[in-house]
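Re: that backbone. Tokens:
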């Protein structure tokens, strides 16, 4: 395998989304048993492209962070939002934080978050 130059690597990182870059950093940390605090600071100058990508985000994830006191209501809402069965929805609610919906439009994410909050759940939209 040919060695990549520093410029080639930076070009590859510029094309990655923030989520992909975050996953890469985690994998790098695990592989080499290091923390990438310094690497994140170095990656900072590539920020303008990353900031543009974040501003133009058109896919959102709805993450259930807590079921609250009305767990049964939250399970019902999760079932309405997804095609999960009763056991799968219960397991999702019990295993929070877990994504309920992934890569959905902003309007759908906001509507799902409102439904879950109305049922008493704690929700995060990313």
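Recovered sequence:
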């Amino acid at each position: 395998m040919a060695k990549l130059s520093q410029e080639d690597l930076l070009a590859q990182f510029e094309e990655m989304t923030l989520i992909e870059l975050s996953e890469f950093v985690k994998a790098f940390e695990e592989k080499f048993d290091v923390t990438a605090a310094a690497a994140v600071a170095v990656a900072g100058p590539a920020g303008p492209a990353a900031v543009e990508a974040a501003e133009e985000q058109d896919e959102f994830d709805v993450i259930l962070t807590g079921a609250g006191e009305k767990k049964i209501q939250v399970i019902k809402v999760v079932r309405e939002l997804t095609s999960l069965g009763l056991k799968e929805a219960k397991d999702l609610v019990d295993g929070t934080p877990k994504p309920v919906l992934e890569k959905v439009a902003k309007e759908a994410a906001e509507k799902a978050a409102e439904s879950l909050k109305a049922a008493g759940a704690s929700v995060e939209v990313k």
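The chain is about 60% helix and 15% strand. The helical segments are 6-15, 18-32, 37-43, 47-55, 71-81, 86-94, 106-118.
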